[in-house]
Amino acid sequence: MDDTYSRASAAADPPYLAADYLSTRTRAPSRPLIVIPQTLSEITGPVYGHSDALPSEADLTSGHAGEPLGERIIVKGRVLDEAGRPVPNTLIEIWQCNAAGRYIHVVDQHPAPLDPNFTGAGRCVTDADGGYAFITIKPGAYPWRNHANAWRPAHIHFSLFGPSFLTRLVTQMYFPGDPLFAFDPIFNAVSDANARQRMVCQFDLATTRPEWALGYRFDIVLRGPNATPRDRDHV
Amino acid sequence: MSERTPSQTVGPFLHIGLAPADYNFRVLFGSSLAGPGVAGVPIEIEGAIRDGEGNVLPDALVEIWQADSDGRYPHPADGRPVRSNSFRGFGRAATDAAGQFHFATVKPGAVPAPGGGLQAPHINVGIFARGLLKRLFTRIYFAGEALNAGDPILALVPEDRRHTLMAQPDTTHPGRFRFDIRLQGADETVFFDA
Asked: Which listed residue (A5, A21, A103, A132) is catalytic?
């Protein structure tokens, strides 16, 4: 059976074992993965409709007694597959720390203030053109204990489904020009410099709303169709 | 052509976005897949996730995707009519402080195999955690299932490792199965690349 989804493009992903990211040393599998065909179990996946996300859940600055502190931003973009086709009606879930670099999470011990007006969780469903938009605040950088004086570049976690179990993606969106890029073993676990740049959003004046919020564009490309000669014959 | 966005780890704070029950954010997916009225044999699956040093992972997320009790997926690529629209086939469970996860679902039916024949009943599993830069993908099969012998995916797994894919019935709790996951080392769970 021909593959439905491309395999070669997986090279863009980081390896399981990235020695500079210490947690991978005990969590990465040591045996080679077993390559299996793409059966009905893999080319299907959870299907969700617009009713699953509420419009208010795309605005992370809402839902609290007041406005969160920090730089209000709009993050907007499209979800595409590798053929450049929009991926409509797919769920995006995001989470992030606050402007001071602190997650609301119980295990975050960074001595930076929590913000009573910010949880840092959002979700939305892409429109017919694969488009999405979130309103949030720019997350701060924060320290972690991977190595001496280790700091994560500012980022927002993104989780996406796409049309099948094989298109599932969890990634992180970074901000342009972050001085911490060179020192971050998670960002640099992606070995290809061009691939790393695909995790960095772009400032966009057209997305920026005057007197209100800076705009950033972030397009996300999910695993796409396998372009076999046989597929092309069918087109 | 567009080029894929690379994967990154969910990190230790994944619960805020993906399992937010403790964070005042509406939970979309839980660990119970089969509500009342869903056809099939109710089952529970529980297990622990351990790393290469034998330590449990208190900060992992397990996602499952499975066919219904007729072996059909509620998805256009399957296309066969399903008996109940209330069974969506997807569940999500974060591990607890002891590294344990738990699902309540129905036993999946046999699924068509490529080129004809059947795949033995199985549940597709994705694992996310701090220290996993991309998802791990495996399958839960059921020990003692007659169709296991002819399953085309199990046939690709060396015989001495197949047991890592077998959920074992809990003899003290009918309908409950145990499926422990070892990320690394001796008895490492078989992970797939599809």
From this structure: A103
